[in-house]
Amino acid sequence: MKDEASGNDDGRSLHVGHLPTFAFGHRSPMWWGTLGLVAIEATVFALVIVAYFYLRGLADAWPLSGSLPPDLLWGTVNTVVLLLSMIPNEMARRAAERLDLRGVRTGLAWCLAFSLAFLAVRALEFTALNCAWDDDAYGSVVWMMMGLHTLHLITDTWDSAVLAVLMHTGPIDGKRFVDVSENAGYWYFVVGSWLPIYATVYFGARI
Amino acid sequence: MSDAASATPAEVLEQTWRDPPGLWGWLSAVNHKTIAARFIYVTFGFFVAGGILALMMRLQLARPDSRLIGPDLYNQLFTMHGTTMMFLFAVPVMQAVAIWLLPLMLGTRTVAFPRMNAFAFWIFLFGGVMLFAAFLIGAGPDAGWFAYVPLANADYSPGKRIDIWGQMITFTETAALMEAIVIIVTIFKMRAPGMTLDRMPLFAWAMLVTSFIVLFAMPAVMLASTALITDRLVDTHFYDPELGGDALLWQHLFWFFGHPEVYLIFIPPLGVISAIIATFSRRPMVGYRAMVLALIATGFLSFGLWVHHMFATNLPELGKAFFTAASLMIAIPTAVQIFCWIATLWTGRLHLRTPLLFILAFFVILLAGGLTGLMLASVSLDTQLHDTYFVVAHLHYVLLGGAVFPMFGAFYYWYPKFTGRMMSERLGKWQFWLFFIGFNVTFFPMHILGLEGMPRRVYTYPDGMGWNAINLVATMGAFMIAASVLLFIVNAWRSRRRGAPAGADPWGGGTLEWRAASPPPAANFDVLPVVHGRYPLWQPAALPDRVAGIDPALREVLLTSVTAAEPDHRMLMPSPSPWPFVTALATTVLFVGSIFTPWAVVWASLPVAITATFWFWPRHSESRIRHEREVRPEVRS
């Protein structure tokens, strides 16, 4: 089957057959789709943080029920883990854009290891919040923030795991490398969104 | 089929892009027109259902001290009416029309993320069905469409009514957010070569602005409703003042979404109006760039108005003053657009057909609604009129005038493209006048009712208040509206078979959708166009005028750069798949399960994750084709 407008070069046709069949970064629709997702979720996080300070502004004491602020240890450990996770994340992204399958596999494996480590520490974080969701509005909003961020971590961990398996089993084509690159971009959002949440949860009740 | 050597390119394209046959194929459909048509039918079905609920209310209010409907059912009726019209009709119908039209207007074959588009439809359908199923078994929500706490909390609204309402919000907003991403990416990356942002149809601009509003507004109501559900189901205290929560937090979060929601409903019709006025004035829109800037300004300002819904609360006066100013300011970009439309009509050669009639009525109705809006933007007056029928009249003037009139205009305008047949002009004019008169007979008297102090959301009123005749008139008007909608349905139904054949461009329109056949083939265009101006069909031919190098035997599309629409790369689009439908089913189990137990969020997540993975997992055959045809981009070493 010939291409549309089979290309008599009479000036009528704009020939695009030579163009690449996939692209990275802002040239890719997937990048824009991911950015849309980031915009939505960033708005949710921003609103929860606003709700936190709104409720704090109404309270005589914060935390409300005389409970202690969250212990700093596990949250801080997790912040370090998250920041370090950007190294393999960047490795995976760059490997994807070089179409380097081995590099992608290695990068994704490390990303996955960091994600699982982070989730394990997150479980410990929940034990050190010094409040329950049903204590009062303070506990509710803290758990809401932590819960939403944990949900993001779980979904991106699953996403990374699926990609890691796919990059080992195939089928592999250029589009999969784009997926890896965009997955890395989304992970940056997960890291970036954690920093204001960390500051709010761990220091919002201390300042 | 590439091996069908005798097939013409058009036939090959049809085979490549059409949906598979049979029930499984029906569930697997991803063609944007198929999904959008379903969306349009379903949202219109909800519109009719919401209208029937309104008629029941008007019947109850036709006489004083009526015992036709009790207070409990009446509470459900107005809640379901508002919820249906706002969440299940007004926003999704505009997105549905956009999903159907935009690829045609932009000169491409499909939308970005066609499977996500299908998933959004299924989620929306299941959410709407769940809400109405609850209503029909007597568990409909009854706290109003904005479900204020503490009325909506577990103490004052026991049972599952509000949980069902809250989860319906999650369903429909999930769908709306996904559609917003689909629309934004389609507009940014899939325009025909040469269609710079400065040449894009105003309807596409309107949908772009709308979709950005969705991205930043809808999360607020999702967060609010999630917090409401957790307050009710797992004893959180977001809205409980006794334990540090705040009832006004709900209002802030809800209206941070709720006022932009008005513009989600209102901005797409602005694009529709621009399309119809240009076509029926036989000239390009006056002030194209001013129109675009006004659309963007409206989008921005829509986020600065939400507190005018809360003037009757104890917020600081300075804050109220700010929101009064912002509420008045939004009239400016609207006025800019109205003057541009008037200038276009003034300098054009008018063709007074049914679509234009609805648009001219829009001017009258919206002007009245806008003026009462300016009145309600004033704190002192709003305090008097808050929660009276004056507000009901105002919001219906704005929403029906701003959205439903243009929507009917849009249906008449694009129906020939949709079906290949013209709608009856005679029935159309009858429908228009019935609707226009019926609307004003229904809602104009409500201004007087409100000024006389009749509160909204009361199931009856005593005799001797001076409200009897006005309410009876409003009820008669409501039945005129119903007759008008019925006439529209009859017209649309009959015209599918008996309407005059439309041809590709029955109105002499200038934008790309009129280049495609009516109804458009599965692939939209036999040859992908190249664009050289804002109204390609009205401009002298220029070369190149077509794209070459896209294989018709594959679901291949051309992606262009965001601003200049220069050819960037080619991409194979996903094939039809049942997995979006299956994933939507799994997601529905999660959402519905969470109404009854929070553990559903845990155990029902796994089926969602697994089905989504199957959805994502590439087929070997498709991947092989991709790999064989691969042209790699320049790779950084």
From TrEMBL, chain A:
Domain Heme-copper oxidase subunit III family profile: 30-206
Domain of life per record: Bacteria
KW ATP-binding (keyword) present: no
Membrane topology of this protein: Multi-pass membrane protein
Transmembrane segments annotated in the record for this chain: 30-55, 67-87, 107-129, 186-205
Compartments, record wording: Cell membrane
GO biological process, one term: aerobic electron transport chain
Molecular-function GO terms, alphabetical: cytochrome-c oxidase activity
GO CC aspect terms: plasma membrane
Keyword annotations from UniProtKB, A to Z: Cell membrane, Membrane, Transmembrane, Transmembrane helix
Family under the similarity heading: Belongs to the cytochrome c oxidase subunit 3 family.
Name of the protein in its database record: Cytochrome C oxidase subunit III
Naturally occurring in which organism (per UniProt): Pseudoduganella lutea
Automatic annotation (TrEMBL), chain B:
Keyword terms, alphabetized: Cell membrane, Copper, Electron transport, Heme, Iron, Membrane, Metal-binding, Oxidoreductase, Respiratory chain, Translocase, Transmembrane, Transmembrane helix, Transport
Known catalytic reactions: 4 Fe(II)-[cytochrome c] + O2 + 8 H(+)(in) = 4 Fe(III)-[cytochrome c] + 2 H2O + 4 H(+)(out)
A GO term, aspect molecular function: cytochrome-c oxidase activity
The family this protein is said to belong to: Belongs to the heme-copper respiratory oxidase family.
Main location: membrane
Species the sequence originates in: Pseudoduganella lutea
Name of the protein: Cytochrome c oxidase subunit 1
Record flagged with keyword Transmembrane: yes
